[in-house]
Design goal:
454 residues; alpha+beta; BirA Bifunctional Protein, domain 2; Rossmann fold; eight-stranded mixed beta sheet; five-stranded mixed beta sheet; 19 helices; 18% strand; globular
Length: 454
């Protein structure tokens, strides 16, 4: 009995129509990246585990897909580890590589490895799949694409301004009504220091980052369970409930963290960033959210998160500044900042909004009907001219019944069909049929190309 075909949970196949829509997203994002002077790179799907481990925090490390070593991977594993059945210890002996969790850490590795070949500040974009051993759910997959844009080798806040403009431009072109949330990890570090929990900054930020998902009560409970003191959690409450304008929020937070050096720097950076953004004509709403933490440990400055206003789904874009990610690979004190657009969630948002343009679905604009060998020869010459004019075109590969050929065109949603029989060949013309209107006209080849090019 044949095995029923299937794919792993959290992964998906994509039909031609779905790929056309996905390419619409990728191409839109890529076009914006290029306008701002960013260049493309690619990195391998798998990295050495030594590159990936320790960069995403304890929770992130658990979500890494690990690849078993080639050959007899158990042969070099000590017998005592096999008997202990300790998967964490055993993994280091039988797996040296893993699938990339994101594009930022591989990018940092790339920068260090190729530092003599690139120009700083280095502005790159990267559109590739990543993998996370997460629990699949709506809007969350184990294999998904990220569209990253980063600049590394510059401390200037103009980079954060530019990234905000890129976010605004991308979602403007995609016609997604979005909200950009901005915070600064220095402010969060100042908060932790001010409430007496400086050494627990990671536990505090990981918990705060879940505020929208699980609510204030459960966030407080998680911090207490992590060992953060009740008094520290209590002092954190006014900060978690801040309201008002950006200026009012900053004034309130400055009263709490202003006496800490790192908190003061964070407030100053946010003030400066918003002073630039206030001068720009952005169509996307931008707000300061002091509960925004983002769980990745390598962020050190500004952090971004973007949500769709009209569709209930997780963040559709996020990122931040990392001051020394390359230091882990031997190149210290190189600051970078970037954001990642979540193509899968953006796709789901556009699907729910019915926001894909109609022409994004078209793969073939015109199909030539096949009446036989002589007609094929006549059509092939015209078909070549049509394609040279940049028009997507095809000919049915065999002289099948007309019903079969027209059904093919209908199912592929091909908007035009060309018919060329004895009459058309004698007149050196073709009959062009508009499949939507049901109209057809006898036209010259030059006129055919003109109509199809409109």
């Amino acid at each position: 009995m044949a095995q029923k075909p299937s794919i792993p949970k959290g992964t998906r196949d994509f039909s031609p129509n779905e790929m056309a829509r996905r390419n619409y997203i990728f191409n839109t994002i890529k076009d914006v990246f290029k306008i701002y002077g960013y260049q493309p790179i690619e990195t391998p799907a798998m990295e050495n585990l030594s590159t990936l481990l320790g960069k995403y925090g304890e929770e992130g490390d658990k979500l890494l897909f690990k690849i078993l070593n080639s050959g007899d991977f158990l042969s070099k594993a000590p017998d005592e580890l096999l008997q202990q059945k300790n998967s964490n210890k055993l993994t280091t002996k039988i797996s040296e590589k893993g699938l990339r969790y994101d594009l930022t850490v591989p990018f940092a590795r790339f920068v260090v490895q190729h530092r003599n070949d690139i120009v700083f500040p280095f502005k790159r974009y990267q559109i590739q799949p990543v993998w996370r051993a997460d629990r699949p759910q709506k809007g969350r997959y184990r294999e998904f694409y990220q569209c990253d844009v980063d600049v590394i080798g510059s401390n200037s806040l103009l980079n954060e301004v530019e990234l905000t403009q890129i976010i605004d431009e991308v979602f403007g072109r995609l016609q997604i009504n979005a909200l950009v949330k901005i915070n600064n990890r220095k402010i969060l570090a100042g908060i932790a220091e001010a409430i007496g929990g400086a050494e627990r900054i990671i536990d505090i930020t990981v918990a705060i980052d879940k505020l929208d998902k699980i609510g204030l009560e459960k966030v407080n409970q998680e911090m207490l369970e992590k060992g953060i003191s009740e008094s520290a959690v209590e002092r954190l409450q006014p900060i978690l409930k801040l309201e008002g304008t950006t200026s009012e929020k900053l004034n309130q937070i400055e009263a709490v963290v202003g006496h800490t050096e790192i908190g003061e720097k964070g407030v100053a950076e946010v003030r400066k960033l918003f002073s630039y953004l206030d001068k720009l004509d952005l169509s996307t709403e931008v707000e300061l959210d002091l509960t925004l933490a983002r769980g990745l440990n390598y962020y050190t400055g500004a952090i971004f998160e973007v949500k769709a206003k009209d569709v209930q789904i997780g963040s559709i874009c996020g990122g931040g500044r990392y001051d020394d990610l390359t230091g882990m690979f031997g190149l210290p004190d190189v600051s970078g900042v970037g954001v990642s657009f979540g193509a899968e969630r953006i796709y789901d948002v556009l699907l729910q909004m019915d926001g894909f343009p109609e022409d994004s679905m078209e793969s073939t604009k015109v199909m030539f009907v096949n009446f036989g060998e002589e007609e094929e020869k006549y059509c092939l010459e015209i078909l070549q001219k049509v394609r040279q004019a940049g028009i997507n075109a095809e000919i049915f590969p065999e002289a099948a019944k007309m019903k079969k050929q027209m059904n093919y065109a209908n199912r592929k949603q091909i908007p035009f069909v060309v018919l060329a029989g004895d009459t058309e060949i004698q007149q050196q013309k073709v009959t062009l049929k508009d499949m939507k209107k049901g109209e057809q006209n006898l036209v010259a080849v030059s006129e055919l190309i003109k109509i199809l090019s409109e």
